[in-house]
Amino acid sequence: MASARDFVLSVMLLAFVTTSIDAIYTEDDFVHCQNTVRKWAASSLDEAKEDKHKLQDLLFFLHVPRTGGRTYFHCFLRKLYASNLECPRSYDKLRFDPSKPNCRLMVTHDDYSMMSKLPKERTSVVTILRNPIDRVFSTYEFSVEVAARFLVHPNLTSATQLTGRIRPRNNGVSTLDIWPWKYLVPWMREDLFTRRDARKHRNLKENKESNDSYDMEEIVMPLHEFINEPVAHDIIHNGATFQVAGLTNNSCLSESHEVRHCVRKYQSLGDYVLDVAKKRLSDMLYVGLTEDHKESATMFANVVGTQVLSQFEALSSISNKADNSKMELSSSFPDSEHDINHLQNSTDDQKESEISSTGSVETRNGTMTVGKLMEDYEVCISSLRKAQARRRTSSLKRISPANFSKDARLQVPEVVLQQIISLNRLDVELYKHAQDIFAQERKHLAEKLVEVKPQEGLKNQFIDSYGPNTWKASLLAIAVLLLIVLKVGIQRAVLSEPDRSRAKVLFLASNLAQKIYSYGPSLLKTELDQF
What mean pLDDT value characterizes the chain? Predict the structure, then answer.
């Protein structure tokens, strides 16, 4: 009896000691993680830019997946930037070369840690954010859509082998080379083949029927399973926050893995990451919203497009002066040469726009303006969406009757939607911050447009209030006075010179006075226009 009691006491004591040790270890681990995350956050909070509204030499488009960034890239940026101005293989970090001459545009799914490879003071960052629920839906749908294209093959082995042999046309970048699809698509592809093989080995009558395209487990991984998979926790949930913070599993920073591990283990530490992401978002040149697509596009054209056009006009003006004086123009990046001939003569991949020798951005229909840019954007996006819809329809036929759509999303249970919100707490808060920034951008742009008109009116009023007769009378008096002053000066300075020299100087002075009299009003108006 006593031995049994001693045994029970020993077990209880052992359990108590083990629990105490675990508690101490857990507390120490939390403190370690907290210090790690705090240290990273402190080193990541850069000083605010003096003028974040000014476009710098390099434009970095941080493309958060499934936010509509592809349309901006093809329908805006490729019309503004010639292909030789785009950083090589922008979507492929391993071959990224920011030192390339004329590298002025980088568009990539890589995270903010790419800034460690760029000159921060000469780089402007833009991005687009999307409602977290819609972004998770879209990520799930696109992963399935791309993976379903491989179902034309008899088995997974055949699909994998053929994929390894085929490379994209025109030396492009495959979806399977781009983060995060290089992780999500192969994973979903394997799952689709597994489910198809399972259906073949079962009687078709045994297959469960469902009207919910997001819950057809016989055909495709259900959404409620997808959001709970480890890969979804690692890449998708709070993905926008981690991407803006520079902490994805594709980060360039050596400490990113440990910081991500700590934040996932202790969710309260995510607030440090959120603060960094908010700060970086606030310092960006432009932040768009997928849901406010039309207004976001218009704002992008006015905020970014206008400055790009102005930059090229300035560069071309410098180029013309350099050509005349046979001087070389150095690059905006250190230790590299600026090939101005590329800037003048290059075209983008679709020959849709070019930088002319006069500095204007031109299309097939003439000089590019913000209005023309928006017109071309609407045409381009319509064509792009039609092509995407055809490709999507073709892919989803292979997993019929599953068919993703806005109407089909309405059938997803509320409990799944609430779980998505809970799993993306940081992204929900970051999106709210993006909405506030967007409202500020709207206000800033409106104030800027209002300021332009009064200035133009003031210039015209100033010129018009002094008509040509008033100007000529005033300038005639100035010209006569100038002649008198010059004549006195000449008599004192060139008494020892021959008459020919004195006559020459008087002729030049008279000519100068005549020019002042004749062109004075237009010269002054030019100065006011520059103001």
Answer: 77
Number of domains in the chain: 1
Dist. CA 531–CA 529, nearest whole Å: 5
Token pair for residue 496? 């020892």
Instruction: Give the integer Cα–Cα distance in Å for 302 and 19.
Output: 62
Torsion sign over Cα 506, 507, 513, 514: positive
Which parts of 465-530 fold into alpha helices (H)?
Answer: 468-493, 499-530
Residues 6+ apart with CB under 8 A from 486: 505, 506, 509
48 inside domain: no
Q: Are strands 361-363 and 366-367 parallel, antiparallel or unpaired?
A: antiparallel
339: in domain: no
Between strands 123-129 and 105-108, the pairing is unpaired
**Rounded Cα distance, 187 and 73, in Å:** 27
More confident residue, 486 or 6: 6
- The CATH number given to whatever domain includes residue 429 is 3.40.50
Sheet holding 366-367, edge to edge: 354-355, 361-363, 366-367
Q: Does residue 482 belong to any structural domain of this protein?
A: no
Closest CA to 153 of 182, 188, 187, 196: 196
Nearest 5°: the CA angle 286, 289, 292 is 120
- Give me the helices (H) in 97-175, please: 132-148, 156-165
Contact (CB, 8 A) for 143 and 188: yes
Q: Is residue 465 part of a domain?
A: no
Give me the count of residues in the chain. 531
Q: Is the preceding peptide bond at 180 cis, omega within 30 degrees of 0?
A: yes
By residue range, what is the domain housing residue 423? 58-317+368-452
Predicted confidence (pLDDT) per residue in 495-514, tens digit: 444 454 454 444 445 555 44
Residue 465: count other Cβ atoms within 10 Å of its Cβ: 8
CB 181 within 8 A of CB 140: no
How many CB atoms lie under 10 A from the CB of residue 186?
Answer: 19
Instruction: Put the strands of the sheet holding 123-129 in their side by side order.
Output: 105-108, 58-62, 123-129, 286-289
Annotate 370-403 with three-state secondary structure: HHHHHHHHHHHHHHHHHHHHHHHHHHHHHHCCCC
Q: Per the confidence metrics, is the pTM higher than 0.90?
A: no
Mean pLDDT of 262-272: 95
CA dist 43 and 58 (Å) reads 23
Q: If DSSP states are collapsed to H, E and C, what string results for 478-496?
A: HHHHHHHHHHHHHHHHCCC
**361 — phi, psi (to 5°)?**
-85, 120
pLDDT in tens, 352-408: 333 332 333 444 334 778 888 999 999 999 999 999 999 999 999 999 999 999 999
